[in-house]
Write a structure and sequence with these properties.
single chain, 9-stranded mixed sheet, alpha/beta
Length: about 260
């Protein structure tokens, strides 16, 4: 296979163990460049925040050419594609994320925010997330979380996406969202899925509090089993314990305007 140029980003930050696992998976396929947030940016979606340090970029000592960006995951992808790289890469990988990104929680995800941004700029994208407990969602490392199997899943899908997209075989591979169950034993067992129509991360009602004081909404991972649809991303990962591979489209139109 022709050696390619691959940009890797995430939302867990430049020090994330999952990011390093993605780099190891991609290195054998070509030149890898990392453009990742300077610090944790989980649940930022595709936000374009305005902060005093926005857009500060520093080159960092890493296994490959790498840049830490002061900004959201979406901004990292944008800075990478519009300023750091001189040409559009053959593939953008966002991840490997601490915690799944499935169902209606998808648009909250910084992992997917970076992927959406890269896709909007014309790059094929692959978002990869590993199932973890809720308390491990906003970390960059954890003794309880290992990325060996997720790294292998990523390694297996990179050439498939490159072949399908760049040889114009299947455009559905241009944006894939991959979610991997924890303790995956067989990296080749997967299902092509669709987004479940319920949240995977459920926000919790605040207690009585002083509303003049700062407060951050808490969340839990909670799945309504009775409302799950067979073959959805959440059902596939949480119940069948299979890898979920979901082709994503940015067309959010519910129906044709001619129906109105």
């Amino acid at each position: 296979m022709k050696r390619r140029r691959i940009m890797i980003t995430n939302d867990d930050g430049i020090q994330s163990e999952g990011l390093l696992a993605a780099v190891r998976a991609a290195k054998e396929f070509g030149e890898v460049i990392v453009v990742a947030p300077a610090k944790q940016q989980t649940a930022m979606g595709r936000a374009y925040p305005r902060t005093k340090d926005m857009g500060i970029i520093r080159k960092v000592d890493y296994e490959v050419e790498a840049y830490a960006v002061n900004g959201s995951p979406g901004y990292c992808a944008a800075f990478g594609l519009l300023e750091i790289l001189d040409t559009l890469p053959d593939l953008v990988i966002s991840g490997i994320n601490f915690g799944c990104n499935m169902g209606m929680s998808l648009t909250c995800s910084g992992t997917l925010g970076a992927a959406f941004e890269a896709y909007s700029q014309g790059a094929p994208v692959m978002a990869v997330s590993l199932e973890t407990a809720a308390e491990d969602i906003m970390v960059t490392s954890s003794r309880k979380v290992g990325f060996q199997m997720a790294e292998e899943v990523t390694r297996q899908w990179i050439p498939q996406i490159l072949e399908q997209v760049h040889e114009k075989k299947n455009e559905a591979y241009r944006f894939l969202n991959i979610n991997i169950p924890s303790e995956t034993s067989d990296t080749e067992k997967y299902r092509m899925t669709f987004l479940e129509d319920q949240n995977y991360y459920v926000l919790q009602r605040p207690p009585k509090r002083d509303r003049s004081k700062p407060y951050c909404l808490g969340y839990i991972i909670q799945v309504d089993d009775e409302k799950l649809h067979k073959g959805s991303d959440i059902q596939t990962v949480c119940h069948d314990r299979l890898i979920s591979v979901t082709p994503i489209s940015m067309d959010m139109t519910r129906t044709s305007l001619s129906h109105f």
